[in-house]
Request: fold
Amino acid sequence: MNSRTDRGVTTKPTPDLPIDTDTISDTIREVQALGSGPLDLEAMTALHEMLRGHVALLLPPARSDADSLWRGDTAWYQRAARLDGIIREAEQPLSHEPFAALVHVQLLARDCGWLLERHVGANTITRPCWQQQAQASTPERKN
Reply:
């Protein structure tokens, strides 16, 4: 399998590294809380690097999922375009201006959240909809 490196973001599959969804969610929540106080460029720099690492872990499975779609379908095009946009966003260096850095980190956190939703959704075992409907329509017995 070919790996693609786009100026710092590697999309090479990393099967040995587990994806810690709790840590990624915590990082996203930290970014969401950034704008409520004074803008700390050092904190944003650390969060930026963590988010780039999270994107590097989440991107290969998302790319693989997109590649499984039929390439002539609009769903494939939309997914591939979104993934390419995430790569471009992750490649951007962090600005030295606090507000610009905040916006960049927030956009990267939003992209990371989108990737995380797809990862969790792809790895969640769900029952077929007909089983869920049957269970919902069955009245509960009382003794």
Observations:
- Residues 5-137 form one domain.
- Residues 41-67 form the longest helix (27 residues).
